[in-house]
Amino acid sequence: MTAAARNSAETTWRRVVVAAPYLWLLVFFLAPFAIILKISLADPLIAQPPFTPVFDESGNLSVTADNFRFLLTDKLYAITYLRSMFMAGATTLLCLALGFPMAYGITRSTPATRNLLLMLIVLPFWISFLLRVYAWMGLMNSHGVINNSLMWLGVIDQPLALMYTDFAVFVGLTYSYLPFMILPLYASLERMNLDLVEAAQDLGASPTKAFWDVTWPLARPGVIAGCLLVFIPAMGEYVIPYLLGGPEALLIGRVLFDEFFVNRDWPLASAVAIVLLLFLVVPIVFLQRSQARDMEHAA
Amino acid sequence: MRRHSRFVLSALAFGYAFLYIPLVLVIVYSFNDSRLATVWGGFSTRWYGELLRNEQVLDAAFLSLRIAITSASFATILGAMAGLALCRFGRFRGRTVLSGMITSPLVMPEVITGLSLLLLFVSLQQLIGWPGQRGFGTITIAHATFSMAYVAVIVQSRLRSMDESLEEAAMDLGGRPARVAFDITLPLIAPAMVAGWLLAFTLSLDDLVIASFVSGPGSSTLPMYIFSKVKLGVSPDINALATLIILFVTTGVFAAWFATRRAANRAHTNRA
User: Fold this and answer.
1) pLDDT reading at B151 higher than 80
2) Minimum Cα–Cα distance from A34: chain B residue
């Protein structure tokens, strides 16, 4: 084959390899966002589909900011967004508080134990998320295992109201997202040179000081990645507040779902999604940057 | 080996108990004879029998499996192409857009992905009459879209860890690009593609929120069926179903773990 023919074959091949995933994502990932934006600027309508067209019959542009105005002025939505942020933030801190010592313990185990412990962190990923949340329903019911055990032990004589509370949502969120925190923490703690900590201690630093001055800064990339991996999905979570939270436990993921399916207000649901995305743009960009850096670091 | 401090040990013990006690209890209660899923009424396997006679469960499980296999296969092919392009093609037009689009689904909240895809399908139906009805096809497309991101990440990290010289040598010896890709690159990234396929398959079987948005009447996947039941509270046949899934997954993961450990040991002895 001549060099020219080979070059043209190479160009064709490359075009095909790039174009297939590119076009797929353009149609099924990027275009849908343009559509959400379009519908969020429409009025709801009792019709199929239930919203007004962007161009009316005479071809004039007809858009409205009513949905966004409503979201901004309605107190309930402001409270829901803030509550979601608070719940996701508190969950992130709980996962960090529990996940950090666990990840640290795993890195410091013997290689054989370490592999087993790591596998036990990954294993829940492969078991249905929904069923793992469901498992807590049987534990936290008023006649569930926790209440029955506590009553049998004589600690309480009335069942505690665990289910359908914010407490239950915290437990469910922390339980589901804990592995997302541990894995990146493990990855950065494992790369760390433990001699540094020992050197600091040999030089007279207390264990606490050695931790804050040496371990923590070195683990920071893992902390950042883990926190974002927990915070971002927790903010839009739907299943956990639905199954474990009370009816008053309004979180934005659930409100979006209900606005769409129960109230059938597609334009408002789209506006809710856009505002949620605006809340998450900063953490998402941050996460992508840190992952890109990590990839380059590994290369 | 270094000893754990008491604090780290208790965090490990508490953490693993926290992760695993709920699962163990679901398994125990799946053998409970009582219909009240939280009161112990003696040992029984009746819920397994009821589960296997429940046609709704079987239909939903079959639909979920078909979707998972198809979407994982699409995701693996497209994801591997994207990974290859991003890792081996240097700079090309649209690279930034492609790399942004491929990683975004990883971090997008499910409710947003689900809503945006449904709105796309509804708009397409108005414009070109496709998709005529939502179900297998639309769920498969949605799952392939978000799981190809995972495949691309896995393939990319495999390609990064590999030297380009084999592919370059094959090219220098006159191999056509497509031929080099299939004969050299493909076997090298095959393990990453298998891992990616398995992950995509699991993600698809696991998804509730996106499938709920893009499915139509009459097509419910297994998670959708489970959700419609557990919304009403704890139910004994779901305990049985959960137990089957937990045991199946645990066996698979342990088998894979032993296999890789043995392979690693063998490589180790060979080298010694």
Assistant:
1) yes
2) B116
Residue A20 in this model has a pLDDT that exceeds 60? yes
CATH topology of domain A73-298: MetI-like fold (1.10.3720)
Q: State whether A138 and B109 contact (CB < 8 Å).
A: no
Sketch out chain B's domains with CATH numbers: 57-267 (1.10.3720.10)
Question: Distance between CA A278 and CA A235 in Å, rounded?
Answer: 12
ipTM associated with this complex:
0.88
Q: Give A-chain residues touching B18 at CB under 8 angstroms.
A: 98, 175, 178
- Each residue of B133-164: b (16+ CB within 10 Å) or e? ebbbbbbbbbbbbbbbbbbbbbbbebbeeeee
User: For residue A137, which residues of chain B lie inside 8 Å, CB to CB?
Assistant: 230, 233-234
Size of interface A-B (CB pairs under 8 A): 259
Q: Where are the domains of chain A?
A: 73-298
Q: Do B26 and A135 touch (CB under 8 A)?
A: yes
Angle between helices B110-128 and A252-261 (to 10 degrees): 20
Residues of B in contact with A225 (CB under 8 A): none
3-state secondary structure chain A: CCHHHHHHHHHHHHHHHHHHHHHHHHHHHHHHHHHHHHHHCCCECCCCCCECCCECCCCCECCCCHHHHHHHHCHHHHHHHHHHHHHHHHHHHHHHHHHHHHHHHHHCCCHHHHHHHHHHHHHHHHCCHHHHHHHHHHHHCCCCHHHHHHHHHCCCCCCCCCCCCHHHHHHHHHHHHHHHHHHHHHHHHHHCCHHHHHHHHHCCCCHHHHHHHHHHHHHHHHHHHHHHHHHHHHHCCCHHHHHHCCCCCCCHHHHHHHHHHCCCCHHHHHHHHHHHHHHHHHHHHHHHHHHHHHHHHHC
Query: Is A91 within 8 Å of A177 (Cβ atoms)?
Result: yes
B266 three-class SS: helix
CA torsion sign, A237 to A238 to A240 to A246? positive
Distance, in Å, from the CA atom of A292 to the CA atom of A286, rounded to the nearest integer, reads 10
Q: Do B78 and A105 touch (CB under 8 A)?
A: no
Chain segment A93-138, per-residue pLDDT in tens: 999 999 999 999 999 888 888 989 999 999 988 888 899 999 998 8
Which residue among B78, B85, B234 sits closest to A141, beta carbon to beta carbon? B234
